[in-house]
Structure formats: structure tokens, C-alpha cells
Amino acid sequence: MKKLLLASSVAALMALPAQAADYTIDTQGAHAFVQFKISHLGYSWLYGRFNTFSGDFSYDAAKLADSKIQLTIDTNSIDSNHAERDKHLRGSDFLNVSKHPKATFTSTKVVAKDGDKFDLHGNLTLNGVTKEVVIAAEKLGEGQDPWGGYRAGFAGSASFQLKDFGINYDLGPASSTVYLDLTVEGIRK
Amino acid sequence: MFKNRSTHYGLVSVTLHWLVALTVFGLFALGFWMVDLTYYSSWYRTAPHWHKSVGIILLIAMLFRVGWRFFTVSPLPVATHRKWEQIASKAAHFLLYAGIFAIIFTGYLISTADGRPIAVFDWFEIPSAGELFARQADIAGDLHRYLAYGVIAIAVLHAVAALKHHFIDKDATFRRMLGRKN
Q1: CA distance A126 to A163
Q2: Where are the beta strands (DSSP E) in chain A?
Q3: CA–CA separation, B1 and A168 (whole Å)
Q4: Coil/strand/helix, residue A154
Q5: B42-96 pLDDT, tens per residue?
Q6: Comparing C-alpha atoms, which of B98, B105, B107, B114 is closest to residue B51?
């Protein structure tokens, strides 16, 4: 009887529509990625990522406009798979990580688009400079995970000029724009 | 002729001294200059490649130089040198040797932090020992720079002291490093 009650209440919970809920980004299990790419000489892409970051978001499928996200990135953790390049990227020509060890993104507004797509407006602080950035985002999915938790996942992309964030090292005419590529999976708190 | 005597330095020690001196100052200048090269400079790739290659060759020369000290005597101090001068010059020599080895080691740690080897003029490669500690390239890079400033400062002091002995004291200190006798 107890078991049946438990089972039916679990079933009832699962049947509920997604409510506004707070999520922690799953950095523990590394199901979230902060990646970037930038043109190399105009001939190919250079990919890199930040290995250490943390964040939370609130998400409500029914009231998307109330959703928000906060992300803090350890700029020291930049990784482009080349130690000497990463050293250069951490230095004063690029990210100035000794002066600006954190980059942050804080959403200010969510604008719904078709289907699961939406625009995530927010302030990106990088190299000590704060600028508004719009992330073109999309919900990839949500639901129970196999281990008793509830997850929701999103992908987003944005681009900005390096010089907008005070990074003036000249990588060539084709390499002034950096493209961010985010995948964020949250575990409901 | 090749080996040292108690009164003078042999050809091997003299040649190594001046080659190492030239190389250390050359590497310092090259390193100081290359870190500010722009990305489209034609030297952007070549200068670090030469800097690393010459650095490894300097390591080989320095290892030979240390080994050579065991094969040959060290000339006695110039008789007119005071006790504190002898101690100070020995200390400076030790710091120069230790500093040069430390600079080469930290340079190795920068370039091999991600497992990549160091190519010496495309003749041969020095393999990486892997990442030995966190933030290796950054920490080793800072040490490499400050050690280099330190070694150059001591080398300048060493040169000024030698010239002082030559021009003011008018003793054999400097001439001995040209292979002359006391």
C-alpha cells in the first residue's frame, strides 16, 4: 500500500507540467561546455574552451520570460590544447587573467522565438569590460534522468568583437570576431 | 694548451667561457625581443624556434663545461685579489652556473607543459616530461623571465668587476680569460 502510494505520487509529480524551477549547471559531472572558436588567418577555425565555470539558472517553459541565468567563468582555465598559446591567451595581450580572473554572464531579458528557441539578452563581463550580448539559445530537452534527478539542457551561441572587450592584439583581419558556443545542462535543485 | 694550469686557463675553458657569454646575452636579447612580436611578423614562429634550439645547445655546452671542470684544474686566484673578492667572484660564478641551468630548465617546462617535445633546429627532439604541476607554463614562464634578469644582472656585474681589475687594478684577471698567463 505504501509502495503504491509512493508510486502514484511519483507518477503524479512526473505528470505535472514543468514548473518554474531553479537549476544548478552540471559542472560536477561536466555536462556543460563553454567553448569558443576564432578564425585562424581566415583559413580555418581555432577551438578552445574554459574548463572551470559555475552557474545557476531558473527556467519555466510556460513563462519563458521569467527565466534567467548567471554564469561565472574562471578565465585561468582557458584551454586551446596548446600550453604556450594558453599562456599567451592568459597574458596581457588577451585575457589579463591575473587582473581579471573571472568572466561573468548575467541575463537581463529572455525573448521567446519559434518553438524551443529564444534570445537570451545579458551582460557579459570579460577582461574587466561589461557589454550587452545576445545569445541565440535553444532548449534541447528536459526530463527525468536515470538517477532520480531532473535535468534541462540548452545550447546557445553568440559572437562579439575582441576589441569590444579591450583585447587589441592583432590576429589578422579575419580574426577579429570570436564565436561563443555554450551547452548547459542543469540539475533541478 | 687545452687544459687549465694553476697559472692560466686552457683553450677549452676560454673558448667555452666566451661562447657561453655570447650565447647567454644573445638568447636574452632574442627572448626579450620575441615576446612582443606581432602575429603577422615573419619572425613570430622562427624566433622562438631558434631561441629554444640554441637554449638546448647551450645546455649541452654547459653540461660539458661542468664536466670539464673535473678533468682539469682551476687556476689559482690572482695573488693580489683580496679574500672577499675571491669569495664574491666564486659566489657570482656559482650563481651564473646555477642560474643558467635554472633558466634552461624553466624554459623547457614552458614549452613541454602540454606534452609537446622541443625540436632543436629540426635536427632532433627533446621529449616532454608531461605536465609536472598545475599552471606549469605560466609559473615556469614567470621564473624564466626573472631568472634571466637575475643572470644578466650578475653577468654584467661579473664583466664590470673584470674590467675594473683590468683597467684600475691593472692585474691579470681579465687577460687570463683571454688565455694569457699571470
Answers
A1: 11
A2: 21-25, 32-40, 44-50, 53-59, 68-74, 78-79, 102-112, 117-126, 129-144, 150-161, 177-188
A3: 58
A4: strand
A5: 999 999 999 999 999 999 999 999 999 999 998 888 889 999 999 999 999 999 9
A6: B107
- Pairing mode, if any, of strands A129-144 and A78-79? unpaired
Q: What is the pTM of this model?
A: 0.86
The ipTM estimated for the assembled molecules is 0.85
Looking at residue B136, its amino acid is Q
Burial of B130 (0-12, 13-18, 19+ CB in 10 A): exposed
A157 is written with which cell numbers?
551561441
CA atoms within 13 A on the CB side of B90: 12
Question: What whole-number distance in Å separates Cα of residue B25 and Cα of residue B27?
Answer: 6
Task: State the smallest CA–CA distance between residue B83 and chain A in angstroms.
Answer: 46
User: H or E element: which one contains A4?
Assistant: helix A2-15
Strand partners, B126: B118
Q: Residue B39 and residue A86: Cβ atoms within 8 Å?
A: no
Contact (CB<8Å) B110/A82? no
One-letter amino acid of B151: V
C-alpha cell at A177: 570576431
In this complex, which of B38, B39, B136 lies closest to A83 when CB atoms are compared? B136
Residue A83, phi then psi, degrees to nearest 5: -60, -40
pLDDT of residue B182: 66
Number of H helices, E strands in chain B: 5, 2
What does the alpha-carbon distance between residue A25 and residue A32 come to, in Å, rounded to a whole number? 7
Region for residue B22 given its phi and psi (left: phi exceeds 0; alpha: psi -120 to 50; beta: otherwise): alpha
